[in-house]
Design brief:
single chain, 433 residues, alpha+beta, Phosphatase 2c, domain 1, five-stranded antiparallel sheet, rod-shaped
Length: 433
Amino acid sequence: MAINHSLRRVTDRFKLGDELLKISRICLGVFFLFIGFGILAPTDELGLYDPPIIRIIHSLVMLGLFISTYTSTWVKEHLELILNSVFYTMTIHSFVLLYWNDLYIGYLIGMVLVITCIGISFVEKRWLITYLFFVIIASIVVGLSTNKPQVDLSLFFPTIITPALVSYLTLNIRLSAVEKLKESEIQLKEFYSRTSEDLLIAQNTQKSLVTIKVPDSDRFKISTYYRSYDKVGGDVLSVEVRPDKRLNIFFADVSGHGIASAMVSAMASLAFKIVSRSNIQPAESLMIMHELLKPLVLNHHISACFAILDAEKNRIEYSYAGHPQILLIRNNHVIEMEGRGSLILSHFEPSLRDYHLDIEADDKFLFYSDGLVELFNEAGEFYGEDKFYESILSNQSKKGKALLEAVVGDSIVFADGHIEDDMTMLFIEMQKS
């Protein structure tokens, strides 16, 4: 994958944004103080040549760069190059002072501090190697060019080279840790990519579970709406034609969210297809589904409605399993269709029974999930069934999908756009014969 190649190219770099910015500010601050204190040193009394003007200019440059790391976008964009220039400038300044003052021990100690500070501050191995090579060559040139060294060369060279080697080893350890972190990041990105692909497949599968194909009929029209809380949800709605030509309708809400709930919803949909092959009543169908799924599903329960629509006889039979009641919209009223029942797949044996209703002309039936009513706004007010029913009545002049979208819109507006559950509806409009 392209992203893996780009990540591997930076596994030998200990930088990226904030890390480099922190390092640069620490270095510039230390160098500013280090150079500044040198201005106060009694160089004349010690017979040392250390022009204050050079230190003043140098310290002002360091201070200016330090401030610029907070104020200048250009400096931040070119920070790595600027930091390397500062490293070389500090090193050259230190070597020049050593040469001018015959390898004076005070400047040698300062040189060691400079190399150590710079060495552990590099963020790229190749630049550190180049810098250390420069330091070693410069130390040899300065050491051999000094006429009367105050420090024996056998001590001078190891004193310079040792912190250089320590810096190299330190960076290797840091980069090794970074490489492991980057490899972990690559693995995480690959896992995320695979998971995203799986979620997309699951999302498409979920859509197929809630996107139903209804046989053409001049007696009724069915519309649906589905909006998941997460990439995949736990709501199911499905319609199957029975052997006796009546219509089975299954509307369910699996507990929880995410992939696990989506898997259970897929299993429930398959169980519904199985029971729809027989001409059995709603309560018995729900019980069979419970018995089929219970051995397989341990940590979820399902609330559901199971209905049989008989358009020829103008009759609807139904059963509840702990789900919100089906709403009958008749004569400008929203009526909760009677009945109750307990959840399936819970730890308790379901209590289920059948109900029926004779259909009148222009009746409408609305199945809905509790995600449409269990909403709060920012003021802490609860939406609830009453406001939901008011929304249905105020939009009843609309037809099919338009009514469902209007009702959902009212719920979302009330909740200030914050939904906390799947929103699913199935709407049946009976047509005049």
